[in-house]
Amino acid sequence: MVLMGCGDWSTDGPDHGYQAKFNFRYYYGQDCSWMGNDYLCGDAYSLSPSLTVSVKIEWNGDATVYYDGEGPFYFWESEYEYGYDRHYDEYYYQFNLDGNYSLTVYDSGAEVIYADTYTGVEHHYFYDVW
Q1: Distance CA 88, CA 66 (A)
Q2: CB 3.0–4.6 Å: which of 12, 39, 104, 105 could bond 113 by disulfide?
Q3: pLDDT tens-digit series, residues 52-97
Q4: Dist. CA 68–CA 49, nearest whole Å
């Protein structure tokens, strides 16, 4: 299975007021639950309407996030994580939307994960499933 993201990815510099900005639209979802030391995932399903995610990282590192029509959510640079995922071999941003929910957005747009950190249920969203 190959998973891809659809959207705009730009890395305009300080002249445009931000480090990075992207908008992604997702058409498929898959729900997964943590079972011991691995995730058990159900079948992929179509989303209608599609789900949208937008992230803008300002020149100073502060972020603005929109998730599926909700937001804006604002984060200081110290309030979110930017890291590298060896499993997916790409970089990601992870935002805690409130005490129990997190949003992980991969740089390529291949996937976004909306997780309930209390129950361990993750909702994975993809642009396409091949």
Answers
A1: 23
A2: 104
A3: 999 999 999 999 999 998 999 999 999 999 999 998 899 999 999 8
A4: 10
Relative to beta strand 70-75, strand 80-85 is unpaired
What is the chain's percent helix, strand, coil content, to nearest 5?
5, 65, 30
Helices (H), 8-126: none
DSSP lists the bridge partners of residue 106 as 92
Cross-strand bridge partners of residue 78 = none
The 3-state DSSP class for residue 16 equals helix
Better-scored residue on pLDDT, 77 or 35? 77
Greatest C-alpha distance within the chain? 48
Per the rule left: phi > 0, alpha: psi between -120 and 50, beta: everything else, 127 is alpha
